[in-house]
Amino acid sequence: MYYVKTLTYVFHVIFHPFDGFWDLKKEKRGSLAAAFTFVFLTIATLTIEKQNTGFLFNPNRLQDLNVVVDIVTVLLLYVLWVVANWCLTSLMDGEGTMKDIAMATGYAIFPVILIRLPMVLMSHAITMDEGSFYHVFMAVSYIWAGFLLFCSTMITHQYSIGKTLVTIVLTIVGMAIIMFIGLLFFSVIQQMLGFGTTIYTELRFR
What we know:
- There is one protein chain.
- The protein has helices at about 1-10, 10-15, 15-25, 30-50, 65-90, 100-110, 110-120, 130-155, 160-205.
- With about 210 residues, the protein is mostly helical.
- The chain has one domain (about 1-205).
């Protein structure tokens, strides 16, 4: 089945990123469906981690957790990265389409699932003295995913190392700008609705 093959191909991508990301784009070895699956698995992993990590390594209070916030946060970061990267690379002669970026990004974050989900179980079996191993593995998951994100940007757009670094920094800046504009837009809309409601109320009760 094609979907299953695109799912399992992620193991080739994370261990052979240069060949893997090239094949995702040129050889059609990946799919958006698989990439979106990894995004939602990442959401599930982070949610499970917050709720079920052993108490020795879990700083979260269960009564303060909100699954909706976790879902929105991951999806928002994913969408912002894809959109900002596509807008920027379109101006910098990047060869990747929005579909290529969305797919490569979904595959790049797989180490978060691969490492952090088993560590939830491990957190119940180790002591505080062994906690350094736990924290090292947790850090590795993000470092590995970050390295794959770097590789995906470089291979997808056919950039040099230097141009890739500049692109990633500018993409993060672009994400912040898009977020600011979005918040400003919703703030203006909220004020306009509030103003309209006030005028309606004044006219109605006169």
